[in-house]
């Protein structure tokens, strides 16, 4: 079992920045990939960014981004803290959504979600 707890959401004006955090606990040694997804009202949940587990515990892993956030968002991980971050810059109103942390071991785990609202 893996437990995920997100934090860092909130209200920000367009052009502003937020950093989301996702702390993992439990069977963290089995995690292969972690990522962020988002779901806006009336829309399906979509991929934002993922980061794979590196070959060693000190490796940052490879990253993948949705086209809509490339160049604005950065995903990173701190293995010592078992935490994944999503730095979001140049936020746009269309980034407004509930953001969910995700971990994959062979099974899929989700956090409870954190609201991000970007005002125009």
Question: What do these coordinates show?
Answer:
- The chain has 120 residues and is mainly β.
- The protein is 0% helix and 54% strand.
- The chain has no helices and eleven strands.
- The protein has strands at 2-7, 10-13, 18-26, 33-39, 46-52, 63-65, 73-78, 83-88, 97-104, 108-110, 114-119.
- The strands form two sheets. Strands 2, 4, 5, 6, 9, 10 and 11 form a seven-stranded mixed beta sheet that branches. A four-stranded antiparallel beta sheet has the order 1-3-8-7, with no helix packed on it.
- The protein is globular, with a radius of gyration of 14 Å.
- The N and C termini lie far apart (40 Å).
- The mean pLDDT is 91.
Please outline what is shown here.
By secondary structure, the protein is an all-beta fold. The chain has strands at 2-7, 10-13, 18-26, 33-39, 46-52, 63-65, 73-78, 83-88, 97-104, 108-110, 114-119.
Descriptive key words:
120 residues, mainly beta, 11 strands, 54% strand
Task: Explain the layout of strands and helices.
Layout: E1 2-7, E2 10-13, E3 18-26, E4 33-39, E5 46-52, E6 63-65, E7 73-78, E8 83-88, E9 97-104, E10 108-110, E11 114-119
Parallel strand pairs: 2-11
Antiparallel strand pairs: 1-3, 3-8, 4-5, 4-9, 5-6, 7-8, 9-10, 9-11
CA radius of gyration = 14 Å
Task: Determine the number of helices (DSSP H or I, runs of at least 4 residues).
Answer: 0
Mean pLDDT, all residues = 91
Largest β sheet strand count, sense and barrel closure: 7 strands, mixed
Which regions are unreliable across 5 or more consecutive residues at pLDDT < 50?
Answer: none
- The end-to-end span amounts to 40 Å
Structural class: mainly beta
The total strand number stands at: 11
Q: Note the overall shape.
A: globular
Topology as a string of helices (H) and strands (E): EEEEEEEEEEE
Q: Portion of residues in helices?
A: under 10%
| Beta-strand content bin | over 45%
